[in-house]
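User: Second chain of the day. Same drill as before.
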Amino acid sequence: MLLRSTINQVSAEEMGIDDYSGIVKRLKSRLILREDSQLGQPVLPSLRLGIILQLKAIGVEITAEQQQNNSINDLISELESHENRMAQQMKGIDGIEKLNRVKIKMACLEWYKKDCKAKGIGYYDSYKNLYFCSDNDVTKHKKVLTNYWRNLVEDAERKPQKEGAYMRETWLYAGTNYRRMVEPLDIAEYYRQEGKRDYQTNGRSKHYILLEQWQKEHTEKLAGAPNDKKKQNVAGSLTEDSCFWMNVEEALISCKQLKDGSNVEKQSARERLNMFEQYVMDQINNYAVSPDIFLEKSSFMNWWKDFQEIIETSHDSPLRGFMKNCRRQYEKGQF
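Assistant: Same format as last time:
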């Protein structure tokens, strides 16, 4: 039947039989590869072997000896380089398309952040306490985003996207925005569980650590005082330290220890709270925190109220002065 289909020029599919042409081609490739290796030649990379097979298919005779010829070798190398460039371009186009789809999910979270602020509560606290139906919807977006960036970071760690850096600037910028937007949601989930402590050691994903490390390496040379543009845009900005809310949660725990703990616990808690005060003031001076932290129902404001009730009235600090006199100017970029 196979011979009859060939004579009548009818396709194998139409005759109801299997098409063996693909199998024959693969066997032919293996045969040529085996012949090369049996001649004592090293097994060639698959791309280079494929180019040689294509040249042979169009009638160019290439023996093992001819492969040492400079002109033939240069031709094969040039075709190999062209194929590699084309593959990289296609990979780049595919990567951009995937990144653009991911940015749509980020836009959904941006909308969620603005909607929460309009309701008088930051998106961190809304998600932690699950106040609204939209809080549950966010989990779906977060899952898609986290899967994408976790896989991308793992790939970049194994095979950096460009020489001298793990990620190209486009992906690093998008990854930084993702980390600053989504990691607070992971922190909210972590501290939503009763008795949880020390997210940075016990709960933080490696891909956040690497994204933060790569971003710091990239921007280290640009470090400096906040410029006017940063001050003007602070109202819509994300908090730069994606672990800010972890520090707030730990400060709330320290307040409880300062109030009810043993003498040793109180001493340790007071030291941590002093450090936290300085940390927050540093973030404010650099316009590195979103004004959302000052919303009345936020965990940060809950900490501040607790802290004010515990510390002595004589306690004075730059943060206390800021909270009393300058807080409302911060969102306007006029602090």
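The chain has two domains: 95-224, 230-334.

User: Great, on to the next one.
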